[in-house]
Amino acid sequence: MKDLNALHVFIAIYQTGSTLRAATRLGRSQSYVSKVLAQLREDLNDPLFIRTSVSLSPTSYADEIAPKLQEALNLVNYSLQPQDFDPANISRISIHMIEPYILGVGKEVINTIRQFTDAEIELKCWAHNSEGLIEDEKVDVGFHVLKDRPQIYSQIPLVGVSGELVGKKDSELIKYVSPGINDHIDYFKQMDSNAHASIFIDHCGLLDQLMENYQCYRHIPITRSAQNIKPHLSLALIFKTSQKNSQKNKWLRELLTPILESFKII
Questions:
Q1: Reading across the β-sheet that carries 141-145, which strands appear in turn?
Q2: What is the β-pairing status of strands 56-58 and 49-51?
Q3: Structural domains of the chain sorted by starting position, each given as residue range(s) with its CATH number in brackets
Q4: pTM of the predicted model, to two decimals?
Q5: What is the pLDDT of residue 50?
Q6: Average pLDDT for residues 202-208, to the nearest whole number?
Q7: Does the pLDDT at position 170 exceed 60?
Q8: CA 91 and chain centroid, separation
Q9: Residue 163 contacts by C-beta under 8 Å, 6 or more apart in sequence?
Q10: DSSP string, 156-172
Q11: What does pLDDT average to over the chain?
């Protein structure tokens, strides 16, 4: 009895004593039910039901296996039902996001999660292997730039950002390198084609320390009404498509969205 549908047919006949009534209960044709029963008899090497003047009477073997199959069917049905979600039951949460957001809202993210669960929390900077970790379901959600990605990933845009020159005027230009965003492109040249960076760093905390003596193009969130500003990037939550609508990830999305949208400068 390898087919789950066959299990339903067997139980329906056992409970109704009729292929016609079983077919009505299952919403299938009587011929379909009779065909499944014939296959079950062959597979199990037992007649299962003997026809009497009033009904199909189960054999001793059918009586023996029916309670076990009913229990198995109940377990399957229970397993397929959506369970009440409680974040307190989560054991681990893993989030990868671009470093400026970790510095800006990481504390709030951790404190907010901790209000609901004692789960182990992993909050790390987005790296070149982050997409692979999301695919392998070792990371629940990422927060990174919206771009072309394979369909295995679902992206939910949250924030639009543009550039603004900050720091000491007429000083050396620093390029802050963010993995997967500007490794191979100078977005600041879209604002000033003559701009040239002479210092390259990938640590946002160090960048903040250097702003007194240097300058850098930093991204700031823009309103939806100013989407034509250049350069323009969108930042998005990134899930594995097959896990996007899991109760855990729906909860994480609701928790993270207002926090990420509140951050003012990158």
A1: 120-125, 92-97, 141-145, 233-240, 153-167, 215-222, 173-176, 197-201
A2: antiparallel
A3: 4-80 (1.10.10.10), 87-261 (3.40.190.290)
A4: 0.62
A5: 94
A6: 80
A7: yes
A8: 16
A9: 187, 188, 190, 191, 217, 218, 219, 220, 231
A10: EEEEEEEEEEEESTTSP
A11: 85
